[in-house]
Specification:
Layout: H1 2-33, H2 39-52, E1 57-59, E2 62-64, H3 67-97
Antiparallel strand pairs: 1-2
């Protein structure tokens, strides 16, 4: 049984080392090929920005396009969602007490 634990610990250690080595290798490749103000770096940065950007949000009175409006719509949505969940948990707990 001890030998099995020893082998498992060794294999997990080797797997962690391999993962770290692969991560370091990918970082070196990125530094060599992409991170020195080249076209590749800018393509990745632009794609990441486009992927995470929210153009507009739909609200009750129309569409929010400006950043301030989008922030207000998002804040209202999540505060209502969290508030509704908290109220439902409270009502369930009071029902259990009765």
């Amino acid at each position: 049984m001890q030998f099995k634990k020893f082998l498992k610990a060794k294999s997990l250690g080797l797997a962690a080392i391999q993962k770290a080595k692969a991560r370091q290798h990918s970082r070196l490749t990125w530094i060599r090929k992409g991170d020195s103000n080249t076209g590749l770096f800018h393509i990745y940065a632009s794609a990441r920005t486009k992927k995470t950007y929210i153009n507009a949000l739909l609200k009750d009175t129309g569409i929010a396009v400006y950043q301030e409006d989008k922030m207000k719509v998002a804040a209202d949505f999540f505060s209502n969602a969290v508030g509704a969940r908290a109220n439902s948990i409270r009502s369930r707990s009071t029902q259990m007490m009765v």
